[in-house]
Amino acid sequence: MNSSEKFIKEKLDQRQSNGTYRTLKPESSLVDFCSNDYLGFARSPVLKHWVEKEVEANDRALNGSTGSRLLSGNLAYTETLEQEIADFHQSEAGLIFNSGYDANLGLFSALPQRSDTIITDELIHASIIDGARLSYANRYTFRHNDLKSLEEKLKHAQGNCYVVIESVYSMDGDTPPIKEISALTEKFKAQLIVDEAHAIGLYGKGLINQLGSESRVFARIITFGKALGCHGAIILGSKLLREYLINFSRSFIYTTACSFHQMASIKMAYKLLPLSANEVQKLHNNIHLFKKTSARPGYNLLPSDSAIQCLIVGSNDKAKQIAGQLQNAGMDVRPILSPTVPKGTERLRICLHSFNTSDEINLLSETIHKLSYA
Ligand SMILES: Cc1ncc(COP(=O)(O)O)c(C=O)c1O
């Protein structure tokens, strides 16, 4: 074994011994309580049919995009779609990226400069952390959803300051006090950036649209891989910001553009969303049912009205054990372990969907109850 292989082996062994070893699992036929397909778009026969029709109707479209957007990979279809999505969300402009990870990486590595400041909620998504790390800006975190803590950090901000939050947090499923954060950000002449990955669909066009706060945010990130059931993301903001990202955002510039098929899927998902009030209602009903049946004494269910519901069990071993038993009982629930979440807050992360039946949800709550007290 050479020294690189030794290093790799040691790192993997460490993971094995502290119980954090990751493995890829093949798709399963268990009841889905873990995917981000909140409204069932990824499995929608209607959407599949529409996408096929759209591809057929554009018979000159290529299978692949053939290059980056700045070289051969740009499509008039994509640019029109970007403007349609921007209009849908009441934003001036939008720029599509190959994924939400790329969008956040590209935005936060390119925009804040050495003398600027990025302030993020302590639970912010890894893609934002990674983007911010690639910038040379000063970086601070504030305590989760804590206005006082944010204000403290804002007092120390230098240069252009960006406050970054999620409208639904991916690991806890809760929502921050957006209006208050927005007011505080304005008081300190900072700019607010909101990642709406888990809010789109569940809250219609997203929480910023629902609150009518479009003009109070500098940029929004909407991902297409969750409730919209496809793949990719858009950064919404001004035309100026769009031009800037085209010029400076490396995860936009140095990568092959999405294929026509992917763009057609996104366009059709946006066509389906306004027609999905029933699915949205079913999802909200399922969230309500799960919360009602899971509210038991001694349970540490994190406060959340979203499709992401987390039951803290307090150790990696217990989280893995209960998730494994739920899987054996036919339900695909995944444990979230430390260090992904802070030690002591290891959890079962339950994702609810419009297509989960009441029986499935009742069985889930019942089984969790039995296992937790076993
Ligand atoms: C809040 C948040 N932002 C961004 C992303 C990344 O999006 P994508 O999966 O499209 O790369 C995720 C996905 O896990 C997320 O939860």
Summed up, what is this model?
With 374 residues, this protein is α/β, with parallel strands linked by helices. Helix content is 42%, strand content 14%. The protein folds into two domains: 115 residues, Aspartate Aminotransferase, domain 1; 230 residues, Type I PLP-dependent aspartate aminotransferase-like (Major domain) (Aspartate Aminotransferase, domain 2, 3-Layer(aba) Sandwich).
Walk me through this protein's architecture.
By secondary structure, this protein is α/β, with parallel strands linked by helices. Helices cover 42% and strands 14% of the residues. The protein has two domains: 22-39 and 276-372, Aspartate Aminotransferase, domain 1 (Alpha-Beta Complex), CATH 3.90.1150.10; 45-274, Type I PLP-dependent aspartate aminotransferase-like (Major domain) (Aspartate Aminotransferase, domain 2, 3-Layer(aba) Sandwich). The chain has helices at 3-17, 45-57, 76-88, 100-110, 126-134, 147-155, 178-187, 207-211, 239-248, 250-253, 260-272, 277-294, 316-328, 358-372, and strands spanning 31-32, 93-97, 117-121, 138-142, 161-166, 191-195, 219-223, 233-237, 308-312, 331-332, 334-336, 347-351. Helix 4 (100-110) runs parallel beside helix 5 and helix 12 packs parallel to helix 14 (358-372). The longest helix is centred in the last third of the chain and has 18 residues, at 277-294. Bound molecules: pyridoxal-5'-phosphate (PLP). Pyridoxal-5'-phosphate binds at residues 99-101, 104, 125, 127, 166, 170, 195, 197-198, 223, 225, 233.
The helix fraction, in percent, is: 40-55%
CATH superfamily of the largest domain, please? Type I PLP-dependent aspartate aminotransferase-like (Major domain)
Query: Ligands bound here?
Result: pyridoxal-5'-phosphate
Low-confidence stretches: none
CATH architecture group name of the largest domain: 3-Layer(aba) Sandwich
Question: Radius of gyration, Cα only, in angstroms?
Answer: 21 Å
Tell me the count of domains. 2
Structural class: alpha/beta
Annotation, overall tally of beta strands: 12
Q: Terminal Cα separation, in Å?
A: 45 Å
Strand order of the largest sheet: 2-8-7-6-5-3-4
Fraction of residues in β-strands: 5-15%
Shape: globular
Order of helices and strands: HEHHEHEHEHEHEHEEHHHHEHEEEH
Largest sheet: 7 strands, mixed
